[in-house]
Amino acid sequence: MHIVDRRLNPGSKSLENRQRFLRRAKAVVQRAVKQSSEHREIRDVLQGGEVSIPLDGMDEPRLRRGDGGTRDQVFPGNKKFVEGDVLPRASQGGGKPKEAGEGDSEDAFRFVLTREEFLDLFLDDLELPDLAKRRLAEAEHSGIRRAGYAVSGSPANIAVGRTMRIAMARRVALRRPRPEAIEQLEREIDDCDEERGATLRAQVEALKAKLRRIPYIDPIDIRYRRFETEPKPVAQAVMFCLMDVSGSMSEHMKDLAKRFYMLLYVFLTRRYRHVEIVFIRHTDKAEEVDEETFFRSPASGGTLVSSALEAMHAIVRARYRPADWNIYAAQASDGDNSHSDGDLTGRLLSGAILPVTQYFAYLEVGEAGQSGAMPDSALWTLYEGLRAGGAHLSMRKVSNRSEIFPVFHELFQRRRGKERAAP
Fold first, then answer.
1. N or C: which terminal CB in the chain sees fewer CB atoms within 10 Å?
2. CATH code at position 402
3. Is 317 found in the same domain as 239?
4. If you ran DSSP here, which 8-state letter would residue 351 be given?
5. Poorest-confidence range of 227-236, 280-289, 386-395?
C-alpha cells in the first residue's frame, strides 16, 4: 500500500522546508546507492539490496510558535558564567567511558531496495546525448493521436465542452424560450386584469410548448472525441562497445572495463526501448561477440586498435544507415597499441568513425593506485590530438573501482538542449 500526502502544507510544517528536505533525502539515498556499487562483483552490480544512509540531517524541520519578543531567562545550575563569557573547549579523552550496551545509539539507517527501485535511483539523471535522428517506424511503433470530433462513438469519449457549445448555438438559433422569461410572465399574470391575464396565459402556454419542442440537449448536438493511429517518429540508436582484451590488459584493468560496460548495458536496456548494442572485443584481431562472451569469456594476444575500428565501420555500413540511426561508441583500453598501427587508427577514427557518430567516449584504465598519476599512453596522445582538431571525443582515465561511476556519470549525464558532452 502506498500513501501519498497531497496536502499543500501538512500540519505544523512548512511546504518549502518539506520540499527541501525531500530533495536532500533523495540526494543522500542516490549517493548511497552509487557508493554501494563500488564493492560488488560484476554480476551483482545493480541487483538491489541493502544500503545505508547517515541519520544526520534526516530530520524534517518543523515550525513551532515561540514566545516572541526579547526576554531574559535564568537557568538553574550556573554559578560561574555571566552573559558574554566564552565557554572553554572540553578536554579530549575526559569523562567516563560509556559501558557496552549502555543507552541507545544509531548512526545509520539501513533499508533494502528492490532492483527496480535501485535502478530508478541509479539512472535517474543519465541520458544519451544528441539523440536526434528519427524516422517513421513500422506499424508496431504506431501511436494514437487526436483527429477532431465525430457524431458517434463511445460514451467514454464524449466531448462535453464541444457538445454544450453546439447545443447552446442550436438553442440560440431556434430562439428557445428561457425559463426565466416564462417565470416572469407568470408573475405578471397575478398582478394584471382579466383581459391582460388571458393574453399572457396564452403566451405562456405557447412558450412552454416551444420549450418542450426544443430540448436543452438534442442527440444531434453530441460530439465524440475522435482518435486515429499513426506511425510515431522513433529515435533509433546503436551503441558500439569496443573493449581491449589483449595481453597488456591485466585482470584489474579488465575488471574496470567490464564494470563500465555493465553500467552502460544496464543504463541502455533500462532507459531506452529502441537501442541496439553491438559488442566488439579485440586483441590484434577484432570480433563481434554476444553479451555472455563479452563479459565472461577470457582472451589474450597482441594489440591492434584499428581492428576494432575497422569492424565497427564494416558493421555500420552493413546494418546501420547513418541517416536513420543515432550511432554511439564507447571504447575501453589501457592505451597500449602497436606503434605501426597509430596512423591507421587515427585515419579510421577521423575519417570513418567520428563523422557518423553522435558521441564517442574513450575510457583508459590503469593499475590500482595510479589515480591522478597515469602517464599519457600512445592511444591517449593520439586521441588528444584528434580532439584538439575539433573532434567530439570525450576522454577519461580510471584506475580504481570507486572512480567508475563518477566517470560514467560525467560521460552520460543529462545535459540541456543539444549540447555535446564536455571533452
1. N
2. 3.40.50.410
3. yes
4. I
5. 227-236
| Angstrom distances, CA of residue 72 to CA of 60, 66, 84 | 29, 14, 14
Distance CA 320, CA 357 (A): 11
For residue 316, give Cα distances in angstroms to 11, 196, 310, 343.
Answer: 60, 94, 10, 22
The values of phi and psi at residue 394, to 5°, are -115, 130
Spatial distance between the Cα atoms of 61 and 55, rounded to a whole number of angstroms: 14
Percent of the residues in the chain that have a pLDDT greater than 70, as a whole number: 69
Report CA-CA distances (Å) from 132 to 278, 319, 391.
Answer: 20, 19, 19
Residues with Cβ within 8 Å of residue 262, at least 6 apart in sequence: 42, 45, 46, 295
C-alpha cell at 168: 447552446
pTM over 0.90: no
Last residue of a domain, one of 191, 226, 261: 226
DSSP 214: S
Tell me what the mean pLDDT of segment 46-73 comes to: 66
Q: What angle do CA 216, 221, 223 make, to 5 degrees?
A: 135
* Whether residues 156 and 52 fall in one domain: no
Query: Contact, 341 vs 310, CB < 8 A?
Result: no
Give me the sign of the Cα torsion angle 306, 309, 315, 321. negative
Same domain, 272 and 387: yes
pLDDT digits (tens, 9 = 90+) for 94-131: 545 444 444 444 556 666 666 666 666 666 666 666 55
For the chain, the domain total comes to: 3
267 found inside a domain: yes
Angle of helix 115-122 relative to helix 15-36, nearest 10 degrees, comes to 100
Q: Which structural domain range is residue 43 located in?
A: 18-60+108-124
pLDDT bin (cut points 50, 70, 90) of residue 138 is: very low
Which amino acid belongs to residue 63? Answer: L
